[in-house]
Amino acid sequence: MTDGKITSLNARDVEREELEVDVLLVGAGPASLSCAIHLQRLLAERGIEDKTILVLEKAEEIGHHTLSGAVMKTKGIAELFPDWRDRGFPVAADVGYDAMVYLRKNGKHNRLDGMLVPPQLRNHGNVIISLNHVVSWLKDRAEEAGIEVYAGFAGAEVAYDGNRVIGVQTRDSGIAKDGSQKATFEPGMDVRAAVTVFAEGTRGSLAKGLIAKLGLAAESNDQTWSTGCKEIWEIPAERGKELLGTVFHTAGEPLGTDGYGGGWIYGVAEDKVSVGYVTPLDHHDAQLDPHALFVKWKQHPFVNKIIEGGKVVRYGAKTIPEGGYFAMPKLQGDGFCLVGDTAGFLNASSLKGVHLAIKSGMLAAEAIAEALEAGDTSAAKLAKYTQLFEASWAKDELYKVRNFRQAFDGGMFGGMVDVAVQMVTGGRGLVARRRGHADHETMRPVSESRMTKPSYNDGDSMDKLTDVYWSGAIHEEDQPSHLLIPDPSICVERCTEEYGNPCQHFCPAAVYEWPDTPQPTGVVINASNCVHCKTCDIADPYENIEWVVPEGGGGPKYIDM
Ligand code: SF4
Questions:
Q1: According to the model, what pLDDT value does residue 4 have?
Q2: 179: left (phi over 0), alpha (psi -120 to 50) or beta
Q3: Does residue 471 have its Cβ closer than 6 Å to ligand 1?
Q4: Helix %, strand %, coil % for the chain, to 5?
Q5: pLDDT at 6 > cutoff 70
Q6: DSSP state of 258
């Protein structure tokens, strides 16, 4: 019934409870909850009241695994709830001041504001949010509408009937490190549904297998990701009040012209700022370290002056699917849809995806409602989702920047020229369709690495382990590692020599440790630190790391993020 690959740590041959629903949504982010809410409404409008909708989320509480910058365009939420403000939608601040800042090597900077900000990065009319407040608010709206939302249940395996998705199996709990069943063993459930909506967020582990098995991305560009590291800083109130509603996006240092990335500073409360740095995973350096770049960025005088005298109160990291329109997989098949980050609904040029996630959920809901009414949840019927997307503002927005991220493949300067041409050619640019490449293919030998680590000064920079503490990451210790290395010999026999074991650098949570011994002995995996960002699953040059779901409830505990 399952796809036959080892993609989960579930026990075999145990009896499982079966739960049958009409629509199952895996993941409780903005796309999933918007889909569930809109679907419930559409069914009610059709007089269909006997359908059950279930949302499963792997975090212990809804929102604990949800992280974003975030500045949000209001278009999506205004369609879902035209009276969103009156209903108490959680807005941290309306964007007041907005600027693009170029950080120079000599510690100076250049600031562009007003009409000098590139059009795609102008934020007037947008709102600053905490995405975990937003999903918690959406969850309350979903529950008010009678939708079941279960936290602490991780989808571990996709269940198939041929190529038709018929639901998922949730993760067992109570399996010891050695694979034996503890006294607390509880088998995961087999949840069966007419339609399963994969809304696992970025690099969903179930969606990854599904996309590969059914060739859903056969005609798509390879997806391109970045890793964003974020902290919330408590800063002196006088400065905080001044910055509330301010949006700074930075380019330049520390990456310089060496890759497509940059930072953000958002004034989110009278005494808090959200700060973060985005590092491209198609960077060629084998010692690429998103967390180290984040630290260096915070040490630039422009950023440092803002956080000086403050303290970190939260940390998190996630990958960001930046490939755009041409990197999106097929959005549906027999018995399933893909929504939100899982399907690549993100506009990399404006650094925004929440409004697109909401819209994707709503469009999927419209197709699912029609399919349920017709009693036909085949790929052909659910293809209405793609048709609706193609006719929507979401497609228009994404199509206008369809070649944006790939334009930077050849370097920053070439990318800037191409983007300028894209702006006057409706998104085409110099080439009709830029192809890009998979991030894991871009790494060069460690002998060519030029990355250096920052100095970890007191006050302005946390090392990875200190930051892990601020992420709240916690997992049951006595369980098998959820980070699978299919061929450990590659790590020791090839990777050490060729790439210098990049996992110890690119993981932003110090999960992978290489003991400093004369002969490489193999990697130590501190799985408990994992913040579920998925960088390792994407960036490993041999594709030799598989991220699978740990026991439900394990992971970071993001609050206010
Ligand atoms: Fe991210 Fe992988 Fe590190 Fe977990 S182990 S924090 S998913 S890079």
A1: 41
A2: left
A3: no
A4: 30, 25, 45
A5: no
A6: S
Range with lowest mean pLDDT among 115-124, 213-222, 278-287, 294-303: 115-124
Within 8 A by CB and 6+ apart from 388, the residues are 363, 366, 367
Residue 496: predicted pLDDT: 94
- Residue 224 in 3-state DSSP? coil
Residue bearing the CA closest to ligand 1, atom 1: 533
Any atom of ligand 1 within 6 Å of the Cβ of 538: no
Give CATH 3.50.50.60 domain extents, the chain.
Answer: 18-67+135-220+329-399
Ligand 1, residue 532: give the atom nearest the CA.
7
CATH topology (fold) of 18-67+135-220+329-399: FAD/NAD(P)-binding domain (3.50.50)
Q: Which two tokens stand for residue 153?
A: 């249940």
Ligand 1 close to Cβ of residue 364 (< 6 A): no
Distance 398 CA to ligand 1 centre (A): 28
What is the reported pLDDT for 516? Answer: 83
DSSP assignment string, 156-185: EEEEEETTEEEEEEEPPEEE-TTSPEEEEE
Beta-bridge mates of residue 230 = 276, 316
DSSP result, 345-402: --BTTTTB-HHHHHHHHHHHHHHHHHHHHHT--SHHHHTHHHHHHHTSHHHHHHHTTT
Best probe residue, ligand 1, of 507, 513, 543 (max atoms within 8 Å of C-beta) = 507
Contact residues for 385 (Cβ-Cβ < 8 A; gap 6+): 331, 332, 337, 363, 364, 366, 367, 368
Averaged pLDDT of the chain? 95
Give me the CATH topology for the region 93-120+222-321+436-561. Answer: D-Amino Acid Oxidase; Chain A, domain 2 (3.30.9)
Matching residue, tokens 């019927």: 381
What are the start and end residues of each CATH 3.30.9.90 domain in the chain? 93-120+222-321+436-561
**Strand 53-57 with 18-26, pairing:** parallel
Q: What is the pLDDT of residues 91-137, one digit of tens each?
A: 999 999 999 999 999 999 999 999 999 888 999 999 999 999 999 99
How far is it, in rounded angstroms, from Cα 18 to Cα 215?
A: 29
Q: What is the pTM of this model?
A: 0.96
Read off the pLDDT of residues 448-465 as tens digits, 9 standing for 90 and up. 999 999 988 766 778 999
Give me the mean pLDDT over the 167-196 stretch. Answer: 97
Residue of higher predicted confidence among 152 and 461: 152
